[in-house]
Design goal:
There is one protein chain. The chain is α/β, with parallel strands linked by helices. Helices cover 26% and strands 26% of the residues. Helix 2 links the parallel strand 4 and strand 5. Keywords: Electron transport, Transport. It holds the Pfam family ETF.
């Protein structure tokens, strides 16, 4: 891995194709767009926006509409391993900083790409940054986002990989006119590999999550005991008494069908 030795700060931002949480429509990823915004606000920065995937993807226009002059696309198929493609590209010349989002909104969405990429390139990785405070003498000072709005300043040596948290500055709006002025440079990477693990998976529609039980806030031990032993109030139902067995059985069967316990 050859590191950038020039005086200009070189930053590469990795972007992926996002998905709207309700409609599933392709869009820019929320944290990837924040990574682009963070890099665009750095002073004296040579920015490269990089996407591994389909060069003809229309959703890339959401990124170019932020005012980018160029987006480089490493052409690969959906079943190819993006980590291998990216690491092969960066081995030729590693930038000072590689920024990513927290996790993709499509595919595996595991958030592990920065870790595997850092392992391949032999450089440090920082998770969930909100801002880059300064870069001098081969060291960057970054602000890491912590739970409950807390922040922690860290010093990390160049080059490094960092994922950008939702706590970072919101990305600027994407404009159609600016998107048309962006150049897309397509590049082929030698030695692309198939993602063998992904090829063995079976993809299915996710089931709705189970609803959380209502939490009773009790101030004393007696209140907690009462809440734990209290019976749920009945809001409906029908008492069966002195009815034919067949009718009572049918009513029970209909109730089980209605509640989804059994299926026809």
């Amino acid at each position: 891995m050859q590191h950038n030795q020039s005086d200009t700060l070189r930053v590469s931002t990795l972007v992926s194709i996002g998905a709207h949480p309700d409609t599933g429509r392709a869009r820019r990823s929320a944290t990837d767009a924040r990574a682009v915004e963070l890099a665009m606000n750095l002073e004296s920065c040579e920015l490269e926006v990089l996407h591994a995937g389909n060069p003809q993807e229309p959703a890339l226009a959401y990124y170019s509409g932020m005012g980018l002059s160029q987006i480089r696309v490493l052409s690969q198929d959906e079943q190819d391993d993006a980590i291998h493609t990216l690491s092969s590209y960066f081995r030729n010349e590693m930038p000072d900083i590689v920024l990513t989002g927290m996790r993709s909104e499509n595919g595996e969405s595991s958030g592990t790409l920065p870790f595997f990429l850092a392992q391949e390139l032999g450089c440090p990785v920082v998770m969930g940054i909100a801002e880059i405070l300064s870069v001098e003498n081969g060291t960057a000072r970054v602000l890491q986002a912590l739970p409950r709005g807390q922040r922690r300043a860290l010093n990390v040596s160049l080059p490094f990989i960092a994922s950008v948290d939702l706590a970072a500055q919101e990305p600027r709006q994407s404009a159609f006119g600016r998107a048309r002025r962006c150049d897309f440079v397509t590049e082929e990477v030698d030695g692309k590999q198939l993602d063998q693990d992904r090829m063995t998976w079976e993809v299915s529609i996710a089931k709705p999550k189970a609803k959380r039980l209502k939490v009773v806030k009790a101030k004393s031990a007696a209140d907690r005991f009462k809440a734990a032993t209290a019976k749920a109030e009945s809001t409906g139902g029908k008492v069966l008494k002195d009815q034919p067995v067949s009718e009572m059985a049918q009513l029970v069967f209909d109730l089980l069908l209605e509640e989804g316990v059994i299926q026809k």
